[in-house]
Amino acid sequence: MSFTRAGEELHLSPSAVSRQISQLEEFLGRRLFAREHNALRLTPAGENYSTDVRRILELSSSATASIMARVVKSRLTISCTAGLSTFWLAPRIGSFIAANPDVEIRIIVRDHFGVVSPAEYDVGIFHLHTTQTPGTRLHQIFEECVFAVCSPEYLEGKRLQPSELLSSTFLVLEDAERNWMSWNSWFELNGVARFAPASTIIVNSYPVIVQLAVQGKGLALGWRNVIDPLLQSGALVKASDASASFGGGYFLTWPADRAQSPAARRFHQWVLDQMEIREEA
């Protein structure tokens, strides 16, 4: 008896639910709901129709369950960036797979959210600076915080001021999405007006940049939560206490034109649980 609560369950707006009910009533030629002040109630026709449709749906569910001789796996297509898939998702996804043996996982790596078609994925994890994403629903999981990282040996364990880092070799991501932070922006946000590096290595793959940093080839930008496992293992260390942010952060995303599947809802909750485990640690 609430379009708002129905919309929450279906991942639709209340107005979309109301519009579909109106279309159904027009098709049937009968009113199903009496719309009163801040309340809904079923009309006699609505009560009869609800009873009959519920019986049909229950019969359909029962028939489907009885004819399925084996468990059919549901497919879950996850889309996320190369860095997140390599350093955050891959080390953790085993626990989701173990808890959900009925789900077949498919991972699509896309570094540019703008090129991801809603038709090709069920749930994604992407870095965004705006929540204005038509056709997509969002749930923020952590805020952006970017810092400079390197191997423990590269600066001999020292943490330097941003201006003192300029004599280093910088690992630069080529063709990064515009809302990703660059070294130029990181230094500007930390009070260094002009980024004039002594030398650079330019790479078009963020995981390769991170591996070069681990090997002591230079400084890389690291995003909190994404790069944390390498900091915790000691493979990388912070090169400076300074950090920077454009705002925004990483979001769970899913297409707004369809309800999340049971597998997508379980993955959604699993991601949130993973973030809680990290906060407790």
Describe this structure in words.
With 281 residues, this protein is an alpha/beta fold. The chain has three domains: 3-67, Arc Repressor Mutant, subunit A; 74-143 and 248-280, D-Maltodextrin-Binding Protein, domain 2, CATH 3.40.190.10; 146-238, Periplasmic binding protein-like II (D-Maltodextrin-Binding Protein, domain 2, 3-Layer(aba) Sandwich). It has helices at 3-10, 14-28, 44-67, 82-99, 183-189, 206-214, 228-233, 262-280, and strands spanning 33-36, 39-42, 74-80, 103-109, 123-128, 136-143, 146-150, 169-173, 199-203, 220-223, 237-238, 249-255. The strands form four sheets. The protein has a five-stranded mixed sheet with strand order 4-3-5-12-6, covered by helices on one side. A three-stranded antiparallel sheet has the order 10-7-11. Helix 4 (82-99) links the parallel strand 3 (74-80) and strand 4 (103-109). It is elongated, with a radius of gyration of 25 Å. It starts with a helix and ends with a helix. The mean pLDDT is 88.
